[in-house]
From TrEMBL:
SUPFAM superfamilies named among the record's database cross-references: Nucleotidylyl transferase
Designated gene of the protein: trpS
CDD domains: TrpRS_core
Positions annotated to bind ATP: R11, S12, T13, G19, N20, G147, K148, D149, V187, K195, M196, S197, K198, S199
NCBIfam families the UniProt entry points to: trpS
Protein name, per record: Tryptophan--tRNA ligase
PANTHER family for the chain: TRYPTOPHAN--TRNA LIGASE, MITOCHONDRIAL
Pfam families: tRNA-synt_1b (PF00579)
One Gene Ontology term, aspect cellular component: cytosol
GO biological process, one term: tryptophanyl-tRNA aminoacylation
Length: 329
């Protein structure tokens, strides 16, 4: 048997980047062998911002294709689209009765978004954590592989689950953040500041869809300096970051050679960036090409989503039966 149920939502907006790959996708791929995984492309969540409807399906297809190209196997995990699971709306309604205005208004992401877009503070935005809770609790997940920024939402999910269980009887397990321990890597940005992210400087982020030349150019432009003048000089952050990227995509002996050159104060950053650029291209190109081929195959993507939705709806319906019975409906 599997070690438990895992559920995670994947944003449908924005292209996946190297940080998502090493910080999330790679872990999902490892989990699919041992856990009963439900991975959902979150298209309903994007509706709070009233996006252009013509782009919704294309975004879902792109993110699905990228995830499959990274190694998620639609036969091993339920890979599905949020809007294909109508059961979500029903649980969302029930959970809304257990969510309080005060706690929703205090959510960090709500406060941020409300400040950024005061003209569009809709109820869907306010109850975003309730929809997220519905996604997770429908699958009765025990683990949710989320980053630190989602911990507050997950705690709210546990609160809603507990309130339900206390009021109506035990239906939901309390979901906890999956602890990756040592495996959790932080991929640094190319500009030497902070982590790689889609919202930061585009030139400092390597996307899985970037062309070979774009990748080479971004790495060429990464911040360096004149280099250490004496052996044993500690590395500045932006140089440390280049080595961290090299550790992710280059061969160990390549990394060791440049480490040695640095420690001998004999490093040439031009050479290092050239090597890193080639190794990055070797790493990204097959993923990009595979994703592109999958994205073109709409029939295959439809089959994947149907298969995923079938599995996710089956377990959602079983949960809702328990929910309705507990609530006396
Ligand atoms: P972004 O920061 O680009 O907006 P998200 O917040 O959508 O990315 O994150 C999706 C997943 O990718 C999360 O699990 C997050 O922890 C992971 N992730 C994002 N950026 C990085 C990074 N630079 N290093 C490691 N993991 C990352
Ligand atoms: Na982020």
């Amino acid at each position: 048997g599997k070690k438990g149920i895992v559920m995670s939502g994947i944003r449908s907006t924005g292209m996946l980047h190297l940080g998502n790959y090493f910080g999330a996708m790679q872990n999902y791929v490892r989990m699919q062998e041992d856990y009963d995984c439900y991975f959902m492309v979150a298209d309903l969540h994007t509706l709070t911002t009233h996006p252009d409807t013509s782009e919704l399906k294309a975004n879902v297809h792109r993110v699905l294709a990228e995830n499959i190209a990274c190694g998620l196997d639609p036969h091993k995990v339920a890979l599905y689209c949020q809007s294909h699971i109508p059961e979500t709306a029903e649980l969302y309604l029930y959970l809304n009765m257990l969510a309080y205005k005060g706690e929703l208004e205090k959510t960090t992401t709500f406060k941020d978004k409300a400040r950024q877009h005061p003209e569009n503070i809709n109820a869907g935005l306010l109850t975003y954590p309730v929809l997220m809770a519905a996604d997770i609790l429908l699958q009765r997940a025990a683990y949710v592989p989320v980053g630190k920024d989602q911990e507050q939402h997950l705690e709210m999910t546990r609160n809603f689950a507990n309130r339900f269980n206390h009021r109506y009887g035990e239906v939901f397990p309390e979901p906890y953040a999956f602890n990756f321990g040592e495996q959790l890597v932080k991929v640094p940005s190319l500009d030497g500041a902070g982590k790689m992210s889609k919202s930061e400087n585009q030139n400092a982020t390597i996307y899985l869809a970037d062309t070979d030349d774009l990748i080479r150019n971004k790495i060429k432009k990464a911040k360096t300096d004149a280099g250490p003048t004496e052996p044993g000089t500690p590395k500045p952050d932006y140089i440390e970051n280049l080595f961290a990227l090299m550790q992710l995509v280059s061969q160990p002996d390549t990394l060791a050679q440049f480490e040695k050159n640095y420690n001998d104060a004999a490093i040439r950053y031009g050479d290092m960036k050239k090597q890193l650029g080639e190794d990055m291209v070797t790493f990204i190109a097959p993923i990009r090409e595979k994703a592109e081929a999958i994205r073109q195959d709409e029939k295959y993507l439809r089959e994947v989503m149907e298969m995923g939705a079938e599995k996710a709806r089956k377990s959602a319906q079983a949960t809702l039966e328990k929910v309705r019975e507990a609530m006396g409906l």
